[in-house]
Amino acid sequence: MNARSWKVGNPKSELKGILDSFRTSFLYVGLFSLFINLLMLAPSFYMLQVYDRVMASRSVETLLMITLIMVWLFVTMGLLEYARSRMLVRIGSQLDDRLNSRLYAAMAKMALRNPGRASSQPLGDLTSLRQFMTGNGPFAFFDAPWIPIYFAILFLFHPMYGLFSVFAALVLISLAVMNEVSTRDLMKDANVRNIQSTTAISAQLRNAEVLHAMGMEPAMREHWLRQHLEFLRAQSDASDKAGIWMNLSKSLRVMFQSLMLGLGAYLAVHNEITSGMIIAGSILMGRALAPIDQMIGAWKQFNSARVSYARLEELLQGVPDTDNRMSLPPPKGDLRVETATLIPPGSQQPVLRSVGFDLGAGEALLVLGPSASGKSSLLRALLGIWPLAAGKVRLDGAEIGHWNRDELGPHIGYLPQDVELFEGSISQNIARFGKVEPDHIIAAARMAGVDEMIRRLPEGYDTLIGPGGATLSGGQRQRVGLASSNSHFAPHPIKWRKLNLSH
To answer: Which of 459, 457, 461, 456 is nearest to 444 (CA)?
Structure first.
């Protein structure tokens, strides 16, 4: 899948469109940020009034009044901070709510296109993106546009104050840019290696029984460990470089604030500013530089969120959300295959060439052929799981891809070679986790010859099984899976036909 596979005529990505729908909420967050940053001026003006007015007049009443005003302003600022944080949390939750089902469907389609390479990484990317949006990182980006307010006030205090603050800001911004340039590729490499390591350990855990039985655990552990150590090395390199810029930025910011005090003292000695402006100027510059310092500190999270965003966008654009087609009548079962040619995903050679047959309702087809002759591939083509390179598969005259899967699925029984049951009760698995109808479930179990076995279990049809049917043997799982494939059908006479596949 490549980002170039985006739909023609859709310049705006689906993910960007969803984020754009929160534009009003982001505007409110920006408005709150404006008032919060204006209220952040309170400490500076409070110190200015204390040194220049209270200390000069020795008035306790004036001190009490301006202190009460400052407390009220800080309470207001705290409420605005809470409202801003709460709004970002709600945006993150709504983003997850809008995307989780869509991502599930996209991951399922990608699993069909790339068998054996399915991954739940997109859900992890969504979590990473949501956590960044609900953390402290965005506050720095929302506060940054108001930095000129602080600079303007510093220029009003004294031009030297303003020029020195601008110089300090440019130095810190340069550090932020160098941090981005030096860590971008390393962070991307670390993320790729993390996905590879996670995928490897997941595959090994799924096959733990085979690895243990064949004594492959040490070798596979070493194989995973090499990938994991490569990820740690890449992450450490990125973190080391980011740490250099972050610590340098923090040290310089503290130094600049101290130098600001020295500059203020020099100007006060020459009677160019008041003594209160010394402290107020240092506080203002610290506040002006804080968003830049925060951005550098949050750059690692920002990079991670940006990579997650890119992966999500690539997935959503590579697997577009197709609207449901017009509903078709319930299928009668007339199946027609017209010169079907199939190339499995990831392969260059076709496994089926110009295969064709007609199968009427009530007829059964026995497919014969040696290993790798395309029997399982034909079944996947009939179900519409793998698209044909040429030819058509028609059910009741309509192409198999023209049926809504959620409407066609209940009329199809499918038992793959590797039977996978899902965590829940036996009755739920037989009912395909739909409505549990006892009569239909028992009838399907009897058709599969598994009714008596189920009744002997401790809880009968209500027996809970773990992921993959861990409490059932392989044969029992197969028979429960067969009952599930029969759960929507009634027995009827079958007319058998034969198809022979060969190379």
So the answer is: 461
Predicted local distance difference test score (pLDDT) of residue 490 = 54
**Angle 46-50-55 from CA coordinates, rounded to 5°:** 175
Distances (CA, A) of 200 to 117, 204, 206, 225, 341: 10, 6, 10, 10, 33
Tell me how far CA of residue 456 lies from CA of 67, 385, 436, 450, in angstroms: 78, 36, 20, 10
Q: Give every CB contact of residue 429 below 8 A, 6+ residues apart in sequence.
A: 421, 422, 465, 469, 480, 481, 484
- Residue pair 362/491 in contact by the 8 Å Cβ criterion: no
Please check whether residue 45 is in contact with residue 156, taking contact to mean a CB–CB distance below 8 angstroms. no
Handedness of CA 390, 393, 398, 404 (dihedral sign): negative
Residue 107 CB: number of other CB atoms within 10 A?
18
344 to 347, 348, 400, 491, 502: CA distances (angstroms): 5, 8, 17, 33, 17
Element holding 169 (H helix, E strand):
helix 159-206
| Cβ–Cβ < 8 Å for 433, 406 | no
Distance CA(388)–CA(161), nearest Å, equals 71
pLDDT (tens digit per residue) in 423-433: 888 888 888 88
Beta carbons within 10 angstroms of residue 127's beta carbon: 13
pTM of the model: 0.65
- Rounded CA-CA distance 414/417 in Å is 10
pLDDT per residue over 243-252, tens digit each? 888 788 888 8
